[in-house]
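User: Run a structure prediction on this.
Assistant: Running it now.
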Amino acid sequence: MMFKIDTDRTTLADDVNLEELIMAKDDLSGADSKAICTESGLMALRERRMKVKNEDFRKSKETVLYPKKSRHARRIVFMN
């Protein structure tokens, strides 16, 4: 549901599958969803495209979630 709200003003390419993004087991917060959608739109703009592609969402998801995962990994190391 969050992705649908965050993309309501975004022109999506035909290959975008919001259900796939929603069903991924990444424990996304509302802020994560918004950040992924914003970054996806910026990627399209950087390439001078009017539509956001599925690849933009995939790359944005990695960009947004990677720092989160690496912080979590560091906490585990320090706790041992």
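The longest helix spans residues 54-79.
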